[in-house]
Design a protein that fits this description.
heterodimer; A: alpha+beta; Alpha-D-Glucose-1,6-Bisphosphate, Chain A, domain 4; five-stranded antiparallel beta sheet; two-stranded antiparallel ribbon; 5 helices; 7 strands; 39% helix; B: alpha+beta; TATA-Binding Protein
């Protein structure tokens, strides 16, 4: 009778406790604690101190871009900042190199370039979901359609923001 | 039997939907994310950093050409980590600065069954945001008043 209750109670307890225990690996004959947090989690804990903004080539390599005609760079940059601060958390911003990183639905790096049309290049920073102990292990993988949906979603908001103040102007000409 | 069903089913649905709707307490202050300060861009920029210092905050990002400062602090009222965005626009010809303050809660990422991760901001557009904004603008004004007294 006792054994009947022992298994259902003890087994879940063992599972629970093993999940809570710190991960240890044996390195040079000594047990060492392993940091299984993601890069994003560590950056948040460290207030993004060591976070380097991705360079322009890397952002362009993200493969997503949207073109906004009949507007200036400053108007687009202003819209990017307004949308980013209302819909996420801006963690890096640099107007001189026209790059910005925002924690939106997922972390996204943006690069604004060109003039008429002004292009917004975007890249989802998937690498921030890699775990610290093993870069092969990732907490989340994004299918290409999911990446495009998130980056395009942000760019669509910027587009609306840029043109919202302009769309009725022809009425006054 | 049919009458009973007609009465009990809508009542059940009503009860369920009422139970599901979230209660968001109203704020005591109107939303005022944007203000115009009769001060130069330089002075306002410095004043924001003094507010960060007063709140024991940490600057996450700043860029003077853009006019954006992002800082993190712990809100004592809600006991939550808040990321505050302060966006300044130089109205040099009018000797003033337009100032926007947008607070965001600490995001946490949740996984969906498709293994797509989305962030959730639990105070976005809701309760307490206006109190945080009001507090920020008051602190900026206090900074200017303290400077004028000196």
């Amino acid at each position: 009778m006792k054994n009947k209750f022992l298994l259902p109670v003890v087994l879940p307890l063992i599972f629970l406790m093993s999940g809570c225990a710190p991960a240890l690996v044996i390195h040079d004959g000594k047990p060492q604690e392993v940091d299984r947090r993601t890069k994003l989690h560590k950056l948040k804990t460290d207030d993004f101190r060591d976070f380097a903004i991705p360079d322009t080539e890397e952002i362009i390599s993200g493969g997503y871009q949207t073109a906004l005609p009949h507007v200036t760079f400053d108007e687009v940059w202003d819209a990017v900042v307004i949308v980013a601060m209302q819909r996420g958390i801006v963690v890096r911003v640099d107007k001189a190199t026209a790059r910005l990183v925002v924690l939106f639905d997922a972390p996204v790096a943006l690069y604004v370039a060109g003039a008429d049309p002004v292009a917004i290049h975007g890249k989802l920073l998937e690498n921030l979901y890699e775990t610290l102990d093993d870069t092969e292990k990732v907490e989340a993988k994004f299918a290409s359609f999911a990446q495009e949906r998130i980056v395009k979603g942000f760019c669509d908001l910027v587009s609306t923001q840029v043109y919202a103040s302009q769309k009725w102007q022809y009425l006054y000409k | 039997m049919t009458t009973k069903l007609f009465i009990s089913l809508p009542a059940l649905i009503l009860l369920l939907t009422c139970g599901c709707s979230s209660y968001i307490p109203t704020s005591n202050f109107p939303a005022q994310m944007e203000r115009r300060l009769e001060a130069s861009f330089e002075d306002t920029w410095e004043a924001v950093f003094k507010v960060v210092e007063a709140l024991d905050g940490v600057v996450i990002a700043e860029d003077k050409p853009t006019g954006l400062i992002v800082y993190k602090f712990k809100d004592t009222e809600s006991d939550k980590i808040i990321y505050m965005h302060v966006y300044l626009k130089d109205l040099a010809d009018q000797g003033a600065t337009r100032i926007y303050a947008v607070p965001q809660a600490d995001p946490f990422y949740r996984k969906t069954p498709l293994s797509i991760v989305f962030s959730t901001f639990d105070i976005a557009g809701g309760y307490h945001v206006r109190e945080i904004e009001k507090d920020f603008f008051e602190k900026v004004t206090d900074t200017f008043e303290a400077r004028d007294e000196e």
